[in-house]
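Notes continue from the previous slide.

Worked example: a multi-chain complex. Inputs as given:
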Amino acid sequence: MTGGAVVERLLYGDVVVGGALPVLGIDVTATTVVLGALASRDWRPMHHDRDFAIQRNGTRDIFLNTPNQAAWFERYVTDWTGPTGRLGRMTFHMNTPVFPGDHMAFMATVDGTEIDGAGCGWITLDVVLRVGDVTNTACTTRVALPLDKDDNPWTRRGDAWRP
Amino acid sequence: MSNSSITELIPVPDEVTARIGLIQYEVEGGFPVENGYVWTTCASVENANPLFWNETVANELTNGPIAPPTMLSVWFRPHHWSPGRTESAVPLQAHFDLKDALDLPEAIISSNTNTFHEPVRIGDRVRSRQILRSISEPKTTKLGYGRFWTIDVEYLNQKDSLLGVESYTAFGYRRLGGDRS
């Protein structure tokens, strides 16, 4: 409980290596792309100007920008962990752009678990953003989870936080 | 794609090689971290995490409101326009410097590693600095021919605490069959 607010929290011990996260499906529109670009203060025209994207970048339309893809991955992971999940590291490789009209599917499996030398519980997730059968972006995320109901990764500082 | 296209790439100038490992473009963001962008970002990805919407939860878990960790780069991107500026500002200047210096007119970010340290708090003044880490040999991809490079952006707050590091790998290129412009 947090001051009257009920907070769902996933604990480290709840996680099984090889387990799958629920799939998240999102229909991408031009608004998705433009809103994401502007929210991340990315004014570059390939994220809002279709003619520029086609003629200069050689893509078929405007496409999701990098920071907004990171925000989508964060949302997907923390939907699963709850607010006590704390991201430590995120690596992603963008193979193919995501365009308006695409249906994004976020999927993930638990690749590993680890309690580090500072006593922090870590989960490694392999996450993919797919459109149809194509993996547009592959992401590896390291996220800290509470070891028990009294643990909170957000309180870790200095050498106790090893992302 | 013929090998002759790759040989058209200019060699990496010595002054560019000399930048590898140097801190460049250390600047403070144009405004303090604020909730408006946090909520707009959360709305853009339908992120309902109560840390960013419920002050009671934020006070309990993070000792006050914070920004989503993946918003790091938001705080150093320049305004699209500001009074008195005569040239457009770009957010990752070291990247655009390389495009110019290597005569590669197009570029995409191909991979990205973000490492998150101290939470970014509402009201923080975020300072960023850019460090060129590497430049590849000439490569050909389906987009064209060019070079990959990696640039780290380090973020610090007003107390000099490290907030995070974003490591961008980009591919600067010429389109296959395209003109040199």
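Summary box: Strands of chain A lie at 24-27, 86-94, 103-115, 121-131, 134-145. The two ends of chain A are 27 Å apart (CA to CA).
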